[in-house]
Design brief:
The protein starts with 13 loop residues before the first helix and ends with a helix. The chain is 78% helix and 0% strand. The chain has helices at residues 14-27, 29-35, 41-59, 62-80, 82-94, 106-115, 118-134, 136-141, 146-202, 207-211. The chain has 214 residues and is an all-alpha fold. It is built from 10 helices and no strands. Helix 7 (118-134) runs antiparallel to helix 9 (146-202). It folds into 2 domains: 11-63 and 177-211, no CATH class; 80-168. The chain is rod-shaped.
Length: 214
């Protein structure tokens, strides 16, 4: 079941707001303990622990760093694919009388590269490799080397692997977000008791302190 955010602020703001509130509660702890047995030094320590857990969940950026690294490599690999395609186009032009238009699919692949469509690059890249094999004899007669064929094939496969890694991280990041919400919701439930109590204690009594819990 999808976890729903139960607090009124942004997720990344909750540990900050909670930190300010905890500082105020520690200052006013005597008033809180006098107000209700729910509040004590021990309960405040528990609240601080939950606040730290929420802060750690929000600031966990391992997946984001991985995604950034993969995306950077992926963009570089897609750019690198342009050079061997240019060389392949030369051989295709040499064989223009034997190839029917863009039989290799170079144009389609370049369109996907230009659009930044990684899945399209993978799909059209595999189609290009298949078409090269289909017309391999003609292209080799014009000077095409096995190394260029391998470079194109390997680069497309690397792009596919990186794209799959991106999708995996997106899935994990979504799950991680749900787990983060559980942690932060739990912190909010406890924090909100202090906010409610603070408003009850200081409303009509101490406007300055009341602001700390509003």
């Amino acid at each position: 079941m999808k976890v729903v955010k139960e607090f009124p602020c942004k997720v990344e703001e909750l540990p900050i707001i909670g930190g300010y509130a905890i500082t105020s509660v520690r200052r006013d702890l005597a008033d809180f303990t006098a107000y209700s047995d729910q509040f004590s030094e021990e309960s405040l320590v528990v609240l601080e622990t939950k606040r730290n857990g929420c802060a750690n969940a929000v600031s966990t950026d391992t997946l984001n760093r991985e995604m950034k690294s993969i995306t950077k490599t992926l963009d570089r690999k897609i750019r690198e694919l342009r050079k061997p395609l240019n060389r392949l186009e030369g051989y295709a032009r040499f064989a223009a009388t034997e190839l029917n238009g863009d039989d290799l699919g170079l144009g389609d692949l370049r369109t996907e590269i230009g659009n930044g469509n990684t899945e399209g690059v993978v799909k059209k890249g595999h189609e290009l490799s298949a078409n090269i094999n289909l017309h391999l004899e003609v292209l080799q007669s014009q000077g095409l080397k096995p190394e260029l064929v391998a470079t194109i094939k390997d680069t497309v496969e690397e792009i596919e692997t990186l794209n799959n890694a991106q999708e995996s991280i997106r899935s994990k990041r979504g799950l991680n977000t749900q787990e983060n919400l559980l942690t932060c919701n739990d912190f909010w439930h406890d924090l909100n008791k202090y906010l409610i109590a603070g408003r009850a204690i200081y409303k009509g009594v101490d406007p300055a302190r009341l602001k700390d819990y509003t």
